[in-house]
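Hey, quick one: can you model this chain's 3D structure?
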Amino acid sequence: EEATQPSIVTAGRVRGVHEAELISQLAVLLGAEEPHIDFTWLGAADPGSRVRLQAAGVQVLDLPGDASCAAHLASGWIFLAPGRVRGFPLFVAQAMAAGLPCVAFDCPAHRAVIRDGQTGFLCTSAQDMIDRIALLVDDLDLRERLGAAARQEARRRFSESEFGTKLLAAYSQPA
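Sure thing. Here's the predicted structure for all 175 residues.
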């Protein structure tokens, strides 16, 4: 169930200052607005990044398992993926499965998962992210519509049965 106060969830494994700095800046800028927006980081963070995030008011939770992660995602309003990623963006897929609209940096990995304007927003700058987050915080209907579409897309694309079907199809093709 969605939190009563605006809540942005972000996740990953911070091993460097760039992503932590960007999330910290966004948290400070958006946390000063009315209504106040809570930020939660799910996942590991190196000690320097943890200090930066916490100083910006970001709650850092290195959760023990998928059930804890799912519970925290489910209470969020928006999932934020502010940096480039290589490989499959697992946290984005998990957030979509939890019914969160995603605001993500426009990169190939995020483009492969998020349908811009339908399951979330792909952004090219920090200001673009701020604008999209503000839009989603202010518009419950849009947030619910994108979140429902994200959940439906996750079920369609990332369910165990769908994954199994695609995996078997890929390995049954002659080389």
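One thing worth noting: Residues 140-158 form the longest helix (19 residues).
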